[in-house]
Recover the amino acids of this structure.
């Protein structure tokens, strides 16, 4: 049976009437990407005397923690997919994450045998709090969305490679005061556009010629 053209048009308009989710229009600041080993200051929560294998595990675990915080903190912008990416990450890389967890536990048993459990718990608390941000939420969430996508599609057993190449960006995104580069706000421009408020500069709602903008 042939459907009238008017019916098709009505069906099309009805199908597209629901609003689409807003896109996250954001041109990120330069986050100075670069590879890391875990020995650099400010990249991971410090682990004194860690071996290269333990540092690699720490990089992986730091990346997981950062993306976990993003999954909780960045739900204001659904198009970043931080929650979905994190859940998929746990499934795709469960073996590598479990190995990193066990390696870190072994590190604390080796370096602090009497207080290994408490030390590991304190390490985890510092790790999570180190990724929490308010003043840099936009830059952090944007970076987490980009890095999380790469982490999801990383080959199994290679998540640490993503941590090595992208964790510096995730850390740098936490710096307060970062601004996006598409629409730059210059306070000086606002000052130049602000008229004087002194009554002597106005006559019948017109600015006198001898008064200048502040």
């Amino acid at each position: 049976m042939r459907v009238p053209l008017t019916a098709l048009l009505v069906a099309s308009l009805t199908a597209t009437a629901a609003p689409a989710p807003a896109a996250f229009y954001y041109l990120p600041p330069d986050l100075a990407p670069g590879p890391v080993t875990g020995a650099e200051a400010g990249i991971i929560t410090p682990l004194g005397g860690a071996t290269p294998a333990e540092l690699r595990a720490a990089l992986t675990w730091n990346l997981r923690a950062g993306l976990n915080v993003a999954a909780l903190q960045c739900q204001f912008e659904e198009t970043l997919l931080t929650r979905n990416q994190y859940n998929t990450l746990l499934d795709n890389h469960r073996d590598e994450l479990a190995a990193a967890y066990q390696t870190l536990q072994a590190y604390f048993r080796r370096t602090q045998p009497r207080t290994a459990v408490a030390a590991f718990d304190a390490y985890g608390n510092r790790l999570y709090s180190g990724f929490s941000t308010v003043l840099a939420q936009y830059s952090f969430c944007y970076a987490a969305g980009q890095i999380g996508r790469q982490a999801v599609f990383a080959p199994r057993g290679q998540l640490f490679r993503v941590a090595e190449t992208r964790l510096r960006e995730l850390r740098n995104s936490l710096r307060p005061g970062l601004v996006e580069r598409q629409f730059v706000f210059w306070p000086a421009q606002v000052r130049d556009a602000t008229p004087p408020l002194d009554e002597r500069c106005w006559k019948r709602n017109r600015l006198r010629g001898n008064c200048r903008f502040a």
